[in-house]
Records
---
Amino acid sequence: MDLLYRAHKVHREAFVDHEIQLSSLMSIKTGGCPEDCAYCPQSAHHEIELENERLIEPDRVLAEAKAAKARGATRFCMGAAWKSPNARDFPRVLEMIRGVKDLGMECCATLGSLNEEQARAMKDAGLSYYNHNLDTSREHYGKIVSTRSYQDRLDTLARVRDAGIKVCCGGILGLGEAEQDRAKLLMELANMPRHPESVPINLLVKVKGTPLEDADDIDPFDFVRAVAMARIMMPKSYVRLSAGRHDMDDALQALCFFAGANSIFFGEKLLTTANAAVDHDLRLLARLGLKPQVSAQEPAKEIESERSILERTGNAVPA
Ligand code: SAM
Ligand code: DTB
Ligand code: SF4
């Protein structure tokens, strides 16, 4: 109760209104991914019933973005099952980014690792956010993914930041991690040179055929605790109640909103799995006295990390 109270207080100081950001998600290249993330239905390492698709046409993506805007989404995120973008497809992704921006939406992409040049090109095309998750603690990461390292993820995130693109970075709960791993993930995020402007907290969607299909359920209140901690540690960031809402009841989602979640994925589908229904979501927000955000609000420009506050004020900085 103390944690919820504190988190809600921090939330109300940073965000005055009761607005929830609606972000729509679309898979622009599905399946056949060379990485072996144990949670992911799109990895080529797992036997999944999933139809792989090459990069889809920009026109189809823009039609979907328009439909998402008409439903009330202010942000459109495009996801690709790549280790990193390839030279043949990348120009078409830039075209999609320009198209989404021209619709007046915030545009986000998640395409795997990036080099400096790719990050710069996406910035020039108008990309607002890049999503690249750390997923879990550094220690637990090796048990979940073997084809890349935690440091690889951090390096891409630094390139995104240096290119002037806002960072969307969070994780997944329910990967068999301990409470300590969740705390460490949040510490990694909150101790970045700047807080990610957007922090997606996913609940594992257990997909048949993935190594984590039978992972133990977590206590739903531990999920709420993680949301509350994210809010307290990163006051001005958008904390997104991301994958996993399909399996959450309304009361649990309400508790997450109270704890400081102020963004959701909105639309029938996530990337390959079902999301909560659009009508249900709009009704839920109305029942809770929450409003869909009408226009993208800029998060505060400079967010000082707890570490920097401690250093500046001459206090002991934890190791
Ligand atoms: N391939 C790119 C990458 O990994 O960065 C972009 C797409 S990937 C699907 C984006 C994120 O989705 C992952 O980092 C992971 O956090 C999340 N994700 C994937 N499968 C999930 C699942 N079954 N449940 C919850 N989150 C999942
Ligand atoms: C994020 O943190 N969650 C989204 C997004 N970033 C791109 C993806 C969730 C994927 C859930 C499983 C699926 O639909 O394939
Ligand atoms: Fe590939 Fe991303 Fe899925 Fe990992 S999470 S298998 S990198 S699509």
Note: The longest strand covers residues 19-29.
---
Amino acid sequence: MGQPRIVVATHRGPFRFTQESDGTFSAHQGAGGVVSALGPLLRDHSEEVRWVAAAITDDDRAAIHAGAAQADGVDLDLLDLDPNVHRMHYELVSNGVLWFLHHGLFDLVRRPRFDARFREAWDAYCDVNRTFATSIAAAADDDDIVLVQDYQLCMVPQYLRAERPDLRVVHFTHIPFCGPNSIRVLPDDVSRALCGSLASAPAGFHTARWGRAFEASTREVLGNDTAAPWFAASLGPDLPSLENVAASPEARASAAQLEDEVGDCFVVLRTDRVEPSKNIVRGFLAYERLLETRPDLLGRVVFVAMLYMSREGLPEYLAYGNEVEQAIARVNDRFGRDGWTPIILDLRDDFARSVAGLQRYDVLLVNPLKDGLNLVAKEGPLLNQRNGVVCLSPEAGAYDELGPAVERIHPYDIEQGAAALGTALSVTPEERAERANRLRALAGARTPADWLRDLLAHA
Ligand code: G6P
């Protein structure tokens, strides 16, 4: 080998484990964009990569205790965290505070409240980050390169620097970064700790927009003469993996089933976690307004909403799931008629089904309030077989690359959103083909290997 190893640290690991009825364990690919981004590492660098991640489920923990938390082709270190400490780290700080802060989701009149419970949770966040750092430090060779991923692990760079200053560390944030006014919402010591840790190593983002916000926030918190080295490196889809899924019997069966459901209607598609920042309800409001203003489309278009529940430990997510279902029921009650359902909801968490949807859409709706990148906005154009149009919010990081070839959709303006959907459904076949070609070129311009190369170049 003779070259430094790469240590990857993610909150969710590349595999989750299931205990079978005979007591043995099987490994399945983990969920989430970060893992699919790093997947090519497994294939191309497997002998040089060590992967550190948290055990998420009881079965993951049981696999660790049975010595079975292993999978072919990866040197995996799954951390067995205290469940209560881990819950506070994940639900209360990572998702309850940092996710809301960086996506601008707080209703500031009511939340956040940084009380004694938060203080306990902040200690838990730091504990989990320290456990990651200690485990990385203990097994790393001199000169290893450590790639720390995302907002769940912001304190790892600082703890690693204290334990192993010889290691080369990069931190990459996959979500947006808030600006200097919002960072002031955090307690002073917390914003100082987070900005200080991220500023102690090169900090990567999917677009320069988030990098500039990080730099401005860091100056606000740590002082104007602080140097916070950052870089932008966007991720691209892993096309060979997508093509494999598209060719699989599961995706073909899903495609056939979808064809039965939608017939020759236009298809507006979205595929998302049930997640407030994805702006799912306003997407239905824009579609409802479209149906009001374009009676010619009644019976000729179907909105296929492939959604799956996520972060169900957080009340905001459960409440949002209810709002999503209510919005769908209202539109279907109002406009549906025999033989035509305006919105088809599919709550299965099934990647092959999403791939089949991405092949079939006429319009792909991606209208987040804010999104670090949104990989689906790039995957769609590469898979789609109908020269479909992408309606994309400029608040998604991917807009910075795809903007010239998409239909812009304002995430809050329902009238504009309805008009954008209407335009997307009405472009001529020639224009669709021309736009789709441009979009394919932009969406395919970056691969996961390019992204990884950029991270290593900044280490
Ligand atoms: C985003 C984050 C990931 C996270 C994923 C799913 O893509 O950037 O780090 O894994 O959401 O969220 P979850 O809370 O289910 O891990």
Note: The chain has two domains: 6-235+450-457, 240-443.
